């Protein structure tokens, strides 16, 4: 590791531990299980947590939404419910996709994914929702892709 990586690690640590508020964190990626500690820890630090990528569908399924053939970790549904409840308890704005680009044929659907379809990305309403949450932020930390790639 070089000086640039050292600088980036120091900057990231400071951004998370002493953020200028409002503080928004964006988490994407495929699996909730890869980010168990990260989600729980960030909820104690952020004003808004934005969830995207494949991991969003575990949270949507935990809320009772149909996720079709989208990535979903059935063994993490209770964890997802617990994190949604923790966010509410802490007053954290917890954002999940409200529409999705899903495919069998590419089409924008709501937060219920039809059987046999797979969500590939967030839809335009979610782009607007997430953009509005980020606009007022003084600190933004982003980790992981928000869609299929």
Which keywords apply here?
149 residues; alpha/beta; four-stranded parallel β-sheet; three-stranded antiparallel β-sheet; 7 strands; globular
For the report, how would you describe the main beta sheet? 4 strands, parallel
- Identify the strand order in the major beta sheet: 3-2-1-7
Q: From the alpha-carbon coordinates, what is the Rg to the nearest angstrom? A: 16 Å
Coarse structural class: alpha/beta
Which regions contain 5 or more consecutive residues with pLDDT less than 50?
none
Termini separation (Å)?
27 Å
Count the DSSP helices.
5
Total number of beta strands? 7
Q: Residue share in helices?
A: 25-40%
Description:
- The mean pLDDT is 89.
- With 149 residues, this protein is α/β, with parallel strands linked by helices.
- The longest helix is centred in the first third of the chain and has 15 residues, at 3-17.
- It has helices at 3-17, 36-43, 56-62, 77-90, 124-135, and strands at residues 23-27, 48-51, 93-95, 100-103, 107-109, 118-122, 139-143.
- Strand 1, helix 2 (36-43) and strand 2 (48-51) form a beta-alpha-beta unit.
- The protein is 38% helix and 19% strand.
Brief write-up:
By secondary structure, the chain is α/β, with parallel strands linked by helices. It is 38% helix and 19% strand. The longest helix is centred in the N-terminal third of the chain and has 15 residues, at 3-17.
């Amino acid at each position: 590791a070089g000086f640039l990586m050292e600088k980036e690690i120091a900057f990231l640590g400071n951004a998370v531990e002493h953020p200028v508020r409002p503080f928004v964190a964006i988490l994407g990626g495929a699996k909730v299980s890869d980010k168990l500690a990260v989600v729980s820890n960030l909820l104690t630090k952020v004003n808004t947590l934005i969830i995207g990528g494949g991991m969003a569908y575990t949270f949507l399924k935990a809320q009772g939404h149909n996720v079709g053939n989208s990535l979903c970790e059935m063994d993490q549904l209770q964890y997802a419910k617990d994190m949604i409840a923790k966010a509410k308890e802490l007053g954290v704005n917890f954002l999940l996709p409200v529409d999705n680009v899903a495919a069998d044929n590419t089409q924008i659907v709501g937060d219920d994914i039809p059987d046999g379809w797979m969500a590939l990305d967030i839809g335009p309403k979610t782009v607007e929702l997430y953009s509005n949450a980020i606009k007022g932020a003084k600190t933004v930390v982003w980790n992981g892709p928000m869609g299929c790639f």
